[in-house]
Amino acid sequence: MTQASEKTGLIVGISALENYLHVSRPTIYKYLQMGMPGLFVSTGDGDGGRWHFHAVNVEAWFQNLTAQRMKNPEKLVEKEGLKKPVKERKRKKDVKKCK
């Protein structure tokens, strides 16, 4: 497992972040669209650049995101089309009556 640099906590490159979080590249880009903190540093030679992340910031972002979403789970259910938590769903009684 690739870890952030122990000395600085820096994660350099999308591949390193994939390994750090154990998720796929498309998931990383989805997180970036959702506002995950990261910095793209261009090489300036038209050859692209490299993403830089700080482990503490990434972890804090996940903590804040999950805390916000759990404050109002009904809104999350509506927004993302998730099933309601089991305790709130209406259940059909499957109990057969014995004669």
Biggest sheet: strands, sense, closure?
3 strands, antiparallel
| Helix and strand pattern | EHHEEHH
Helix content: 40-55%
User: Could you name the ranges where pLDDT drops below 50 across 5 or more consecutive residues?
Assistant: none
Strand content: 5-15%
Shape: globular
Taking all Cα atoms into account, the compactness measure Rg is 21 Å
Total helices: the number is 4
Helix/strand-derived category reads alpha+beta
Mean pLDDT: 79
- Strands, total number: 3
Lateral strand order in the biggest sheet? 1-3-2
From the N-terminal CA to the C-terminal CA, the straight-line distance is 60 Å
Report what the structure shows:
The protein is an alpha+beta fold and 99 residues long. It has helices spanning 14-21, 25-34, 55-71, 73-80, and strands at 10-12, 39-42, 49-54. It is 43% helix and 13% strand. Strands 1-3-2 form a 3-stranded antiparallel β-sheet. The radius of gyration is 21 Å and the shape is globular.
In terms of topology, how is this protein built?
Layout: E1 10-12, H1 14-21, H2 25-34, E2 39-42, E3 49-54, H3 55-71, H4 73-80
Antiparallel strand pairs: 1-3, 2-3
Write a short abstract of this structure.
The protein is α+β, with helices and mostly antiparallel strands and 99 residues long. It has helices at residues 14-21, 25-34, 55-71, 73-80, and strands at 10-12, 39-42, 49-54.
List keywords for this structure.
99 residues; alpha+beta; three-stranded antiparallel β-sheet; globular
